[in-house]
Amino acid sequence: MNNLGEYLCENCRPYFEQLNRFYEDKIKEFEERIIELERENKEIKKRLLAYENAHTPPSKQRFPVREKSSSGKKGRPKGYPGSTRKFRKPDRTINLTAKKCPPLPWEIREARQDREQNNRRLAKTQTDNCH
Fold this sequence. Notes:
single chain; mainly alpha
Protein backbone atom coordinates (compact mmCIF):
# COMPACT_ATOMS: atom_id res chain seq x y z
CA MET A 1 0.00 0.00 0.00
CA ASN A 2 1.35 3.42 -0.77
CA ASN A 3 1.60 6.33 1.67
CA LEU A 4 -1.99 7.55 1.22
CA GLY A 5 -3.35 4.44 2.91
CA GLU A 6 -1.72 5.48 6.17
CA TYR A 7 -3.92 8.57 6.39
CA LEU A 8 -7.23 6.81 5.77
CA CYS A 9 -9.65 5.66 8.44
CA GLU A 10 -10.27 1.96 8.93
CA ASN A 11 -13.60 2.16 7.07
CA CYS A 12 -12.11 3.79 3.98
CA ARG A 13 -8.90 1.74 3.80
CA PRO A 14 -10.49 -1.40 2.17
CA TYR A 15 -12.15 0.77 -0.49
CA PHE A 16 -8.89 2.55 -1.14
CA GLU A 17 -7.01 -0.74 -1.46
CA GLN A 18 -9.63 -2.13 -3.84
CA LEU A 19 -9.57 1.04 -5.91
CA ASN A 20 -5.77 0.99 -5.92
CA ARG A 21 -5.74 -2.63 -7.23
CA PHE A 22 -8.33 -1.71 -9.86
CA TYR A 23 -6.19 1.14 -11.19
CA GLU A 24 -2.97 -0.89 -11.01
CA ASP A 25 -4.64 -3.50 -13.24
CA LYS A 26 -5.78 -0.77 -15.63
CA ILE A 27 -2.25 0.66 -15.79
CA LYS A 28 -0.87 -2.79 -16.55
CA GLU A 29 -3.43 -3.19 -19.38
CA PHE A 30 -2.50 0.21 -20.80
CA GLU A 31 1.23 -0.57 -20.65
CA GLU A 32 0.65 -3.83 -22.56
CA ARG A 33 -1.46 -1.97 -25.13
CA ILE A 34 1.27 0.67 -25.55
CA ILE A 35 3.86 -2.03 -26.22
CA GLU A 36 1.53 -3.64 -28.77
CA LEU A 37 0.86 -0.32 -30.52
CA GLU A 38 4.55 0.59 -30.59
CA ARG A 39 5.33 -2.75 -32.24
CA GLU A 40 2.55 -2.18 -34.78
CA ASN A 41 3.75 1.38 -35.43
CA LYS A 42 7.29 0.10 -36.06
CA GLU A 43 6.01 -2.42 -38.62
CA ILE A 44 3.92 0.19 -40.41
CA LYS A 45 6.83 2.64 -40.56
CA LYS A 46 8.99 -0.12 -42.01
CA ARG A 47 6.43 -0.81 -44.77
CA LEU A 48 5.98 2.91 -45.42
CA LEU A 49 9.70 3.33 -46.14
CA ALA A 50 9.19 1.58 -49.48
CA TYR A 51 6.93 4.42 -50.61
CA GLU A 52 9.03 7.27 -49.20
CA ASN A 53 12.30 6.10 -50.72
CA ALA A 54 13.86 8.71 -53.02
CA HIS A 55 14.56 6.01 -55.61
CA THR A 56 10.93 4.84 -55.83
CA PRO A 57 9.40 5.80 -59.18
CA PRO A 58 6.33 8.07 -59.06
CA SER A 59 4.09 5.30 -60.37
CA LYS A 60 4.84 3.26 -57.23
CA GLN A 61 4.40 6.10 -54.77
CA ARG A 62 1.09 5.71 -53.00
CA PHE A 63 0.86 9.09 -51.32
CA PRO A 64 1.41 11.88 -53.84
CA VAL A 65 2.69 15.17 -52.47
CA ARG A 66 -0.05 17.79 -52.54
CA GLU A 67 0.88 21.21 -53.81
CA LYS A 68 -0.27 24.28 -51.96
CA SER A 69 -2.98 26.21 -53.69
CA SER A 70 -2.18 29.82 -54.40
CA SER A 71 -5.77 30.97 -54.05
CA GLY A 72 -4.83 33.22 -51.15
CA LYS A 73 -6.51 33.70 -47.81
CA LYS A 74 -9.22 31.27 -46.78
CA GLY A 75 -12.34 32.18 -44.88
CA ARG A 76 -14.71 35.11 -45.07
CA PRO A 77 -13.57 38.28 -46.83
CA LYS A 78 -12.24 41.26 -44.85
CA GLY A 79 -14.86 43.78 -43.88
CA TYR A 80 -17.66 41.23 -43.99
CA PRO A 81 -20.16 41.99 -41.22
CA GLY A 82 -20.15 39.31 -38.56
CA SER A 83 -23.23 37.85 -36.99
CA THR A 84 -23.45 36.61 -33.44
CA ARG A 85 -26.28 35.65 -31.20
CA LYS A 86 -27.31 38.12 -28.54
CA PHE A 87 -26.75 36.86 -25.01
CA ARG A 88 -29.55 37.12 -22.50
CA LYS A 89 -28.84 37.94 -18.90
CA PRO A 90 -29.70 35.05 -16.59
CA ASP A 91 -32.91 35.63 -14.65
CA ARG A 92 -32.04 33.14 -11.88
CA THR A 93 -29.21 31.02 -10.51
CA ILE A 94 -29.69 27.38 -9.58
CA ASN A 95 -27.17 25.79 -7.21
CA LEU A 96 -26.88 22.04 -7.71
CA THR A 97 -25.30 19.82 -5.09
CA ALA A 98 -25.18 16.07 -4.83
CA LYS A 99 -27.07 14.51 -1.93
CA LYS A 100 -24.46 11.73 -1.70
CA CYS A 101 -21.24 10.64 -3.39
CA PRO A 102 -21.52 8.70 -6.68
CA PRO A 103 -21.04 4.93 -6.42
CA LEU A 104 -17.57 3.48 -6.86
CA PRO A 105 -16.94 1.05 -9.78
CA TRP A 106 -17.02 -2.09 -7.66
CA GLU A 107 -20.21 -0.97 -5.91
CA ILE A 108 -21.94 -0.74 -9.29
CA ARG A 109 -20.73 -4.23 -10.18
CA GLU A 110 -21.89 -5.62 -6.81
CA ALA A 111 -25.32 -3.98 -7.14
CA ARG A 112 -25.72 -5.45 -10.64
CA GLN A 113 -24.80 -8.93 -9.37
CA ASP A 114 -27.24 -8.59 -6.44
CA ARG A 115 -30.03 -7.54 -8.81
CA GLU A 116 -29.33 -10.52 -11.10
CA GLN A 117 -29.41 -12.91 -8.12
CA ASN A 118 -32.71 -11.43 -6.92
CA ASN A 119 -34.19 -11.77 -10.43
CA ARG A 120 -33.14 -15.43 -10.60
CA ARG A 121 -34.54 -16.07 -7.11
CA LEU A 122 -37.82 -14.35 -8.04
CA ALA A 123 -38.11 -16.30 -11.30
CA LYS A 124 -37.50 -19.57 -9.41
CA THR A 125 -40.18 -18.81 -6.82
CA GLN A 126 -42.65 -17.88 -9.56
CA THR A 127 -42.06 -21.15 -11.39
CA ASP A 128 -42.31 -23.09 -8.10
CA ASN A 129 -45.70 -21.49 -7.38
CA CYS A 130 -47.07 -22.38 -10.82
CA HIS A 131 -46.83 -26.16 -10.30
